[in-house]
Amino acid sequence: MTKDNASRIEPTETLDTSGMLCPLPVYKAGLALKGLKQGDVLRIICTDPGSLADIPAFAHQRGDVLLKVDDQGTTQTFLIEKGSGS
Amino acid sequence: MTAITHPASPSRSDYAARRFEDIRDLLPDVNNPTPLVRVRNSLGVDNVYLKLEWMNPFGSIKDRAAAYLVQGMVDRGDLEGRELVEASSGNTAIALAAMGAINDTKVTITIPDGVPEETKTILRMLGAEVWETPDELCPVDHPKDGAIALARSLAASENGTRYVMADQYENPDNVRAHFETTGPEIWNQTDGQISAFFAGFGTCGTLTGTGRYLKQQNPDIRVIAIEPQAGHRLPGLKSFAEANEPGNLDRSVIDDVVMVDDDDAYAMTLRLHRRDGLMVGLSTGAIAHAIDQYDGLGDGLIVGVSPDASTKYTSYFIERLGNEGQPS
Fold first, then answer.
1. CB of A58 within 8 Å of any CB in chain B?
2. How big is chain B by its Cα radius of gyration, in Å?
3. Are the beta carbons of A24 and B150 separated by less than 8 Å?
4. What is the ipTM of this complex?
5. Is the pLDDT assigned to residue B118 strictly greater than 80?
6. Are residues B23 and B135 in the same domain?
7. Superfamily for A9-81?
8. Residue B71 Cα distances to B34, B78, B155, angstroms
9. Is B283 among the residues known to form the active site?
10. Measured between CB atoms, does B138 come within 8 Å of chain A?
């Protein structure tokens, strides 16, 4: 999968962390990814601007692939493909 | 084996005084102090006493802080319609979970990963929700305090309507608990003859509250803090090389800091078991090792805190004991 066709990806699961402040979305994302298989895609919806730094760093730290970041100001949406090492 | 000498038999009224209507009536204060017991065999000197905080109803020194923290939250109305969340490596969590169970208050604990299974199981038995949290949870801003950060984010999320955090690291009720109970108890139990007080860095409520009280009675009393090495495996203790210093730490009451490594703490914990029958936890081992190594304490009474018992750490010792104590 490449980042170019990320917009056409159907996520395996969606995690809505609206109203949650970091690092709570990171923690919830870790739990959600634990239940997915390698190659599955998790969509994470956040409302804490801190997630713009935290979620990409979290994905990199775990060895997952950050496919997409969509910052709409009050809402941030991320697509993460689960890697092999997590 | 030497004979056991018992104190004078209690009167009938003493027996009645040991009957309680609520487990919380066993919480310590100046009229119900935890025992101060001499360490007779394990150390090179005979003027050292340990304050056995594991005789508290929920099993540790954190019963004191938890009682004050809960009372403060009740007085402020913080718990009305909300759940309690706290970051704790075990003892505060257990005390809060027990009090939450009594009050029908839901308790969520964010707990650092690596905490022994015994602690997590006890918490779940008490009905608490346990969120195991990696220290490096925050990938960007990451002091080694992931559990504290997570508890704070839970308390702040949903506009603060769902959770309230006890915040033992910053809440002055923690310090006040020790200023009003632990300090006066030790002062009374030693008839003011205490010359040095040893306790570990953690939330720092014990060090700051007890140390402040004792120094108010006698400024010459030395207050010694014990700090573990970075990367330690001594639950309840904090290394400030890797964790933020809590707001409850008042360094002006501390005369000296002793670094203790894991091997020495584990060895002393076993020695206290095997030579004195003191079934203490690892933080007590660290504190007793520091007392044993410390020069120039003089002839006054030395008091070390024994925060908890070994029962929650048996899995750690299974690894260290190997085949020891088993028939070959």
1. yes
2. 20
3. yes
4. 0.76
5. yes
6. no
7. TusA-like domain (3.30.110.40)
8. 20, 10, 18
9. yes
10. yes
